[in-house]
Amino acid sequence: MNVGPYKFSEFKELAVKFHGYAAPGLLIGGYMTVAAKAALPDGVLFEALVETYNCLPDAVQLLTPCSTGNKRLHVVHYGKTALSLFDKYSGRGVRARVDPGLLGPRPEIRAWIMKEKGKEEQDEALLEQQIAEAGTTIIALQPVTVDLSRLNRKSDGPLAFCPRCGESFPAAHGGLCRGCAEGAPYSVPS
Predict the structure, then answer these.
(1) 102 and 141 belong to one structural domain
(2) Which of 116, 128, 143, 153 is the most buried (most CB within 10 A)?
(3) pLDDT by residue (tens digit) across 59-73?
């Protein structure tokens, strides 16, 4: 079954190039994204809300114009394999998730979703085969309205130069950039 405009094998190759490997969450996420996108009205300017940091955001970035760079991809880590595509202005959209009741005779997908097997125990070929065969048939859709006020959609505002490191930063952060004020997550050799 195709993943949007791609044959499954093509999407798998794209996943490897973008993500580093054909992660099951990215492959299933491709079908989730396609199903949600198809449920939106034509021409709507949409954003995405993904409920895990793991793999699924990359499917959205590969199959939609939503990305972290353009701030149209929002991630709220609930640890769920679920995503919503919604109208940028009204918040109305659709949420897609894997429905356990639709898995049927696909034990490898179920074992992967429920983390019943470690990666080394999974039958990768069988898991990919079951994902490809299932396509969108294991995806449940439900209408949603996303609370836009809960999304970080603010502009950084005016910029300033940090008097300590000399780099530009949002002036609203205070007198120093956050890296200098709070300690950066890296160190620079002297």
Answers:
(1) yes
(2) 128
(3) 999 999 999 999 999
Domain that holds residue 166: 154-190
Residue type, 53: Y
- 120 lies in the same domain as 189: no
pTM, whole model, 2 decimals? 0.86
d(CA 170, CA 167): 10
**How far is 95 from 89, CA to CA, in rounded Å?**
17
Same structural domain, 188 and 144: no
Pairing of strands 46-50, 82-87: antiparallel
Instruction: Answer yes or no: do 81 and 165 share one domain.
Output: no
pLDDT one-digit tens code per residue, 135-182: 999 999 999 999 998 887 677 788 999 999 999 989 999 999 999 998
Q: Which residues pair with 85 in a beta bridge?
A: 48, 94
